[in-house]
Design goal:
alpha/beta, 2 domains, 4-stranded parallel β-sheet, 4 strands
Length: 173
């Protein structure tokens, strides 16, 4: 039996919290090791070196990026391709539209939106950090507490319907 390793490149803590809670349990049975690499605060050359190592070991990887202000997924992938060159396979880039907060909110169904005291959103495709922050009810001590409560109630089926980029990723895995 071969040893299977997956490396997941994420921007920051909110992405890691989401991945650990929602995605990792789905992928864990397929891999002996799932390693997370937060790249946003590291020099690009360190991330490039790590990508080279991952590829040399024939390990699987996903590279998550927010679309931010680029017009489409293709332009974001091309942008990342320009930054990392031939080291990165554009097919392994997962573009989160708009930002990871949109994926958090995508998993909140009608019943849970009432329990969390937020309005039910039909579509979270264009939610930004600022919009997410404006939805946090006063009963939560912090943004992180709110995110954790969402993750406890998260519905993958609801999220696939409310956010196209999350649905795309779930189809890919």
């Amino acid at each position: 039996m071969t040893y299977k390793r997956l490396c997941v490149f994420l921007e920051g803590n909110d992405d890691e919290r989401f991945f650990e809670s929602i995605v990792k349990p789905i992928l864990s049975p397929r891999y002996d090791l799932i390693q997370i690499w937060q790249y946003a605060q590291k020099p690009r050359r360190r991330t490039k070196n790590f990508l080279r190592a991952i590829k040399a070991m024939n390990s699987d990887y996903f590279f998550f990026v927010d679309i931010n202000n680029l017009p489409c997924v293709t332009s974001k992938k091309e942008n990342i391709g320009e930054k990392y060159g031939e080291i990165i396979d554009l097919n392994n880039i997962i573009v989160v539209v708009r930002e990871i907060e949109s994926w958090y909110l995508a998993g909140v169904n009608y019943k849970n939106s009432r329990g969390l005291r937020i309005r039910n959103l039909r579509n979270t495709y264009n939610i930004t950090k600022e919009q997410f922050d404006s939805l946090i009810p006063k009963q939560f001590d912090s943004r992180i507490d709110f995110m954790i409560e969402i993750l406890k109630r998260f519905s993958i089926q609801t999220a696939k319907k409310k956010n196209k980029s999350f649905g795309y990723f779930m189809g890919k895995i």
